Amino acid sequence: MSLTRENVAKVAKLARIRLEEAELDAMKVEINGILNWIDHLQQVNTDGVDIFSEQQEQHLPERPDIVDDGNIVDAILANAPEKTHGMFAVPKVVE
């Protein structure tokens, strides 16, 4: 499959991409290269290949899900202009 310059211009228009005249030719070459690669991949014989043949059972180590403040609350609040009860104090925005 191969795209013409007109096809590239139409696709660019549909995608709302503005391409200059010089860019159309460069884009045509690039898209045709991608399409040729896809065509090449489609010719590979995959008959008899199990889809999941390369997957292996992997048991990754799990860590406990523990909530932690990182012990840096005081360092963070030190930069706050106002703080109340260990939290940032901000002006009320919505009445």
The spatial strand order of the largest sheet comes to: 1-2
CA(first)-CA(last) distance? 62 Å
Biggest β-sheet: count, sense, barrel?
Answer: 2 strands, antiparallel
Q: What characteristic shape results from the CA principal axes?
A: flat
- Per DSSP, what share of the residues sits in E-state strands of 2 or more residues? under 5%
Low-pLDDT runs = none
Name the helix and strand elements from N-terminus to C-terminus, one letter apiece: HHHEE
What is the CA-based Rg, rounded? 29 Å
Indicate the mean pLDDT.
Answer: 88
DSSP E strands, number: 2
The helix fraction, in percent, is 25-40%
Briefly note the structural class of the backbone. Answer: mainly alpha
Number of helices: 3
Short summary:
By secondary structure, the protein is mainly alpha-helical.
Write the layout of secondary structure elements.
Layout: H1 5-14, H2 21-42, H3 73-77, E1 83-84, E2 87-88
Antiparallel strand pairs: 1-2
How is this structure best described in words?
With 95 residues, this protein is mainly α. It has a domain at 5-42. 39% of the residues lie in helices and 4% in strands. The chain has a two-stranded antiparallel sheet. A hairpin with a 2-residue loop joins strand 1 and strand 2 (87-88).
Please tag this protein with its features.
95 residues, mainly alpha, two-stranded antiparallel sheet, 3 helices, 39% helix, 4% strand, flat, transferase activity, ATP binding, ATP-binding, EC 6.3.5.-
